[in-house]
Design goal:
Blueprint: H1 5-13, E1 19-22, H2 29-36, E2 43-50, E3 56-62, E4 65-67, H3 69-76, E5 81-82, H4 85-91, E6 110-114, E7 122-126, E8 132-137, H5 138-144, E9 149-151, E10 154-156
Parallel strand pairs: 2-7, 3-6, 6-9
Antiparallel strand pairs: 1-8, 2-3, 2-5, 4-10, 7-8
């Protein structure tokens, strides 16, 4: 499948420079890190949440971390819950199940990214399938995220 047309169009419209990294099939961001031989903290995964009004929020965080729902709810001043798989399939119908690209603007979803991502020189994001990553430099990532809220809301990932 490779990168979705929606993401490719979005990156082109924003004039973002990127590289495509192919890797062996993987069903998770952590698995993609292993398959692509990239440190998991450099892969930005997207987790989709919703509030009580069903308004969506894309939380973008390193693949080796998990969301602290308590911290995120405090930052967002809202009660949030994970979106069900069925709804994710509708929101990201152009993507393979579970391969959500962390490009909130391409999908018209509000977002917040974890401050840990700011510290990285290179960031990799899912492209919409389970065999492709998009590589961005920190400056290109920050350019994309210039109007996106950020805070510390992740915690160590527990297996």
């Amino acid at each position: 499948m490779s990168m979705t047309a929606r993401v490719a169009d979005f990156l082109q419209q924003q004039q973002i420079q990127y590289d495509i990294i192919k890797h062996a099939y993987s069903i998770s961001a952590q698995g993609s890190a292993i398959a692509a031989r990239i440190a998991a903290e450099h892969i930005a995964k997207a987790v989709i949440l919703a509030d009580h009004d069903s308004k969506h929020l894309m939380a973008i965080l390193p693949a080796n971390r998990q969301i602290s729902l308590h911290k995120l709810q405090l930052v967002m001043s809202s009660t949030l819950h994970l979106v069900e798989e069925r709804e994710l399939n509708q929101l990201f119908s152009d993507c393979e199940q579970g391969a959500i690209p962390a490009f909130n603007q391409a999908y018209n979803i509000n977002a917040i990214y974890d401050d840990r991502l700011i510290q990285l020189s290179d960031i990799y994001l899912e492209a919409g399938d389970h065999q492709t990553l998009i590589h961005l430099t920190a400056s290109q990532f920050l350019l994309l995220m210039s109007n996106v809220k950020h805070a510390q809301f992740s915690e160590e990932w527990i297996h």
